[in-house]
Fold this sequence. Notes:
The protein is α/β, with parallel strands linked by helices. Helices cover 35% and strands 23% of the residues. It folds into 2 domains: 30-148, Immunoglobulin-like (Sandwich), CATH 2.60.40; 177-393, Aminopeptidase. The longest helix has 30 residues, at 300-329.
Amino acid sequence: MVIVRRLSGLMGALAASLAFMAGASAAASEIIAVRFGVHDSHTRIVVETRTEMDFRAFASGEVTPRLVVDIPGARWNVTGLADGQGQGHGLAGRFRFEPAAQSPRLVFELTESVRVRETFSLPPADGGHRIVIDIEPAPAALMTASSGFDSVDQTMTQFLAERVQVAYVPPRCESPRIVIDPGHGGRDPGAPGRFGSVSESHLALAAGLALRDILVARGRYEVIMTRDRDVFLELDERIQVARRAEADIFISLHADAAPNSNAGPRGATVYTLSDSGTNRARTRARQDGEWLQTSAARSAQVNDLLLEMSLQEKRNQSLIFAGSILENATDVTPLFRREPLERGFWVLLDSQIPAVLFEMGFMTNPDDSRNLNTPAYRQRLMTAVADSIDEYFAVCGNAGPLRTAAAGSTGGGPATR
Length: 417
C-alpha cells in the first residue's frame, strides 16, 4: 500500500507539473495587444505576444481587400477584446482573431487595396515581443501579384472571387436542396421510449417525414431524406447522402435523454459544429480530397485557403440557421438552451454544407416525451423548422451579406450523433 500511495503521489505531482507547464506554454503563446500607427505613406500594425513567435503576413484582394497574419500556436488574450474582434486605424478596418483556422490567424479588413511593404519582429520594450507589419496603398493588380502566393496561383483569382460570393448568399435560388436526416434507425433505436412514447429513432423518422411533407407542400424545395423507413445507416453514409445531393442545408433530427432522470431537463436544443469538430472536418476534407485536390493549376496553399474559407462560412451559416430554428421553435416548445451549442457530432463534419443537429426535446421528460409522441405536436414543431428554412433562403438573390451569428456555451458529453 505504501508503494501504491507513493506512485499515486508521484503521478499526482507529475500531472500537476504537466498541467502547470501546459498552462505556462499556453500563456507564452498569447497575443496580448494589437496596435496601429498611421503615417502619411503607410499604416503600421503591431501584434504584441508574450514570447517571440513565427508569423506570415499576406494581403488578398479577392472580393474585398484583407490582410491575413498567420501565427501558428497563437492564443487570444487581449484585454477589452474578449470576443477576438476590434477596430483598426488607417488602412486597417475591423479585425478578428480566428483560432479555428488551420493556423490561428488575425484577419484585417482593409479600407483599400494594399501591399505588404515590410514585416519584421522586435524584442520587448515596455511590453511583449512585437510582430510588425507595414502596409501601404497599392493598385489591386499589384496587390494580387504581391499577395504571397506562387505565380501559378494567379489563375485562381476569379475562382476565389466566385467562391467568396457563394459565401454571402445561399447557393441555390431555385429549388434549394434540403437534406433531412432522421437520427438512428434499424438496429440503432437511440433513446428508449418513455412515458408511452416510441423510441427515439421512430420519433425522429416521424418528425422527418412530417418536415418533408411540409416542405414539399410549399413547392419551393427539393427534399432528400437520408432514410425514409426504419433502417440503419452509418454516420458517414448520412454525410455522403448530403454530399451526393449537393445539399444547400442539412438538418439531423434527434430526441435527447438525461441519465438517471424521471423528469429532469426538458426542451429543445440546436447544435452546430465546434472548434474540435472543425479540426476533424478539416482533416477529413484533406484525406478525402473533396474539391481540394492539388493540381498543376492550384497549389496546396490555395487549397488551404479555400478550405478555411469554406469551413468558416459553413459555421457562420449553420449558426444563422440554428438561431432561426430556436427563435421559431420557442412558440412550440420550451428551450433547453436559448442559444446554439457547439459539438463535434459526426453528421456535422462535412466541410461545406451548413448543418445543424436538432434535439427536439427529452425522451426522459414526461411532457417532452408525450408531446413528441403526438402527431399534431410534431406537425407544429416541424412547421417551425420549415419556417426557419424559409427564412434562411429568403435572402436568396440578395447581393448583400447575410447576418452574422455567435454560438453559445459548449455542451458536454460525448459527440456520437
